[in-house]
Structure formats: structure tokens, C-alpha cells
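Researcher: Here's the sequence for the chain we discussed earlier.
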Amino acid sequence: MQVYGDVARQQAGAQVIARMSHDMRHAGTMAPGLSRHSLLVTLLIDAGMLAQGAADARLSAAGEDTVAGQQEAMALTTALARCCWASWCSGYQNCGPLPFELLARCEATLADALLLLRVPEGYAFYAVYPELYGEAARRCRHMAPHWQVFGLRSIGTSLAAMVAVALGAPVPRTLRPVGHPFDREIAAPPLQCVDGGAGFAVVDEGPGLSGSSMAAAGRWLQQAGVATNRLHFFPSHAGLPGPEAGTFARTLWTSVSRQHVSFEDGVGTALRTEHQLRRWVETLVGPLVAPLQDIGNGRWRPLQTRDKGEPPPPAHPWQERLKYLAFSGEATWLVKFVGLGRMGERALVRANALGSAGFTPAPAGLRHGFLVERWRDDLGPLPSRLPRAQRASLLTKIGDYLAFRSRSFPAAADSGASMASLLEMTRCNATEAFGVSAGERCAALERSFQHASADVVRVETDNRMHRWEWLAGRSLLLKTDAVDHAAAHDLVGCQDIAWDMVGAEVEWGLSPAELRTVAARAGQQGAHINMSLIALLRPSYLAFQWAHFAMAVNAADAPERAALVAERDRYRRALRIALEARPGR
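Model: Thanks. This is the structure I predict for it:
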């Protein structure tokens, strides 16, 4: 099944460096505090992406990973990690000198390069904080007289720099795991001049289903003569690899030293108040009168008031972002992770625009990756059956909402899955659901998808038009969870607004007449509506949702399975009907 996808874009080195230069100058003028610290972390993430792009370009040209081509960008990344670490350790009061000279060196060598930059998933989606890698390194620094640090690209570039700074190690080297996702290898020549007394740190996020990336780096170091008791893995969670781990990976992961500080320990209940999420929120909304309440992993559902007989919505707990409730006396606030660095900044822009237009709850602001907005416990989810007048109001609201997104959030032409990628996803998932003949039926649509590519007008789509994402009161209807799914860790990304039109049709069971009503309303408000594209994308939307919920069922605990199975089967039935219909009907 195809659900996930990497977020990667080609950018000129000069563009990245110019943006960093602007922000570095701005950081130099800012007062000490969390806002400056967050900007320093943004710069660290950008530098790590620059280093990743440069190293991957060198790998592509040379056929193997070498130290050459990494020095300038990794030196810049490490210098910015040193600024972030100094800021963190001083309670955001001091950051040391900013590395303008190193940025200038990168400009001299990388400005003319066209680099493929990959968004570090942990920073964007999973609340991986580089500062906590520094904390983990500080706690184990005494375990070796000196250290060598290796980061796995992509996110390992900047995380390794933070680990190296906290360990007092030299500028780290980065490595690219290659090959099958469950059986990675390191594309680098053997390591030379191994120091038998050093500690060796391997830094990345994960482990995932197999843990094979960090295991590959461990094997590569062992082949160079590094003893297992000198190996230290720095992962993003304390667990072991998942069910796809091979024998070697499982054995190595249980043999090496694993260094990790959890978000709860490092931020949730940190000893220093300035490191606590609670304190970050208080700088926006005032003193809190109770501890933050964790409502992630589906724990938000019992807090919503539903009509009698309405079941709670299905939840995919391990895919949910961190979220909390904060209580400031007169108001309750939702505190949700939306991304570090520029990912979070863009989410705030969308949240402000949507809130000002009255489509979503109004945000209070952004605090180091967490968006803070009003928790509307005065509203409740819409029931599955609506009175005629309320349904008519809903159709008008959906049309206005999609028109606003279409006008307000244009996206680059390469910012989402191409029509060819959507068709391949549809073919793959339909084959998994129904067999080879269904996949062949999808393949027959290739020419239609090719012709439609020229008509796609990409925007930052909602991608979550599900019924449970809408809240209503007597005279108010709001869309929730609306700011970050076009940049989620899946293959869809930014699409034509037709994708959300299909979402509205499927999730609300719109009749053909109702769909035309919504489309007409959106068109009147300035949206570019292509009814033929809506018809063409219907099987793709259903194939994606079916696979998403099928994977959720496979990973769910018993209490969640029934609701997830019902959703999976609903999409499967609709997908069968869509595939059997005449294309474009």
C-alpha cells in the first residue's frame, strides 16, 4: 500500500543562503528569549538541510559518500548548533557569536548549486527537538575520553551537530543509508584510522519498522574495527525497531548503548522552568491554573459533546501529533505541535488567515513548534444526519471555505504528488484491495491523468474534510485541524482544490446536485473549479483513504479497531463503485 511520501524540493543554494543570511542578521538584533532561540533552531534546521543537499549531490556525482564536499556546510551547521546549545543552556539569554563567516564560505561554494532538500520529518511532524539530543549527549559525555559523531541524512545532519557540540566532539560526518528500507547499507568507503579509545555516536531519528538505517551505520563502523561497547545510538525514542527488523539489526540494537531524552522529560517536566512547554504557553496566554492535559493518542474524543447515539470518531493514535489542553482560568487552549522551523511558521500564517476569516478557531500564537489556539468546548461535532436547513448552511460554508483556501494559499507546482504519482498510488492500492484487474483498470486512466496534469492549480489543500473535523453551535460552524495536512508525512501534499471537493463529497455523502451546489458556490467566490478533475480524482482519494485506514487497522489496539475497520470498509465499498464507473462520469 502507498500512503507515505517524502517531502523534497529542488532549491538553488543561493536561495537558501540568502534566506539564512537575512534571518541570521535578524537574530543578531533580537532580544534574548524563546523567540530568538526558535529562530536559531530554524537556522540550524536550514543549515542541516543545506548540508544534506550538498552531501547528497556529492554522493550522486561520486557514487559514494566521502568527506569531501561536506566540510563547509557541516561546519556551518555545527556552529549554529553551538549557538542553539548555548542559548538552551543559558535559558535563552546567550547564544555566542553568529557564524557569518562560515555562511559566506558556503555561499562561495554552494550558491550556484541546485540541491534536492528533504524536509526533516522529525522536526516537521514528530516533535523531535535537537535540544533534547544535546541533553542526551551531555548525560553520556563522561562515557568516553573523546568522541566521533556520525549523522544519518537527512535529519541526522543537524541532530549530529547538536550531539557533537554537547559531547565536545569535532564537526561530525554524515552518511546516507541506501538500499531497501528494511535492509539499508552505507554508501561510503571503509572508515580509516579508527581510534580505539573513542566513543562513536550514530545519530538519527527512529527506529522505525526495521531500524536498519542506524544498524547499517553500526555495521559499517564494526567493519572498521569499532567495538560494540564503543557504539552509542542516539534515536528519537526509547523503543526498539519494529517487526521488520532483521536478526542483525535486532541483535545490534539490544547490544549498543542507546542515548535518549524523551519530550516529556526534557520539555514536559523539565527541571528548568524556561525549558517547560507550560512556561512557553504562559508567555502567550498568561498564568495557567492547572497542569497541561495530554489529549494526544485519541484522548481528545471524550472531551467533545456529541448527540446521543453518535459514536466517537475513529482515531489513528500513533499518527497523531502531540497535543495538550491548557487552562488559563477564563479560557481553555489547544496546544498542538505543528512543526519546528519554517514548517511551524507557515502553519501560523495559515492559522492566522483562517482564524481572521472566521473559518477556524483563532490562534493566540506559536511557541517553539506549538500552535496555541482557543479550545472551543462550547461547540460540538456535527451529527451524521442534519436537518435540511443546517445541511444547506453546511454546503454554503464548505464552498466558501474551499474558495478561501484556493484564493489565499497558492502552492508551487512541485509541492505535492504529481498526477502520475497519484495514479500509481491508486493502481497500487486498488490492486491491494481488489486484485490485479482493479490495478489494470486504473492503468487504463493514464492518458486521462496525463492530460489533466496541465489543468492542476495547486494550493495548500485541507486534506482533512472528514465529518468529525467540523464543529458547530447555534449560529457558528468551524473547521478544525486545518493548518498542516497539506504538509503532512504522506504522499498527497498540495493538490488542486478538486481534491478537497472530492473529500467533501465522500465524507459528507454529497449527492451530485449537492456537489454542483458546493462547486458553484466556490466558483462564485473565486475558486478555480474543474468538475472533470473532481471526477478523475475520486478513485485516487478513495484509494488513499482506504490504505490509510487499512494501515491504521493493522496497527490498532483492540478498543480502536472496530471504528477503524468501519471506515476502512466504507472507503473500500466506495472505491469499488468508483472503479466500476465510467472514467469521468
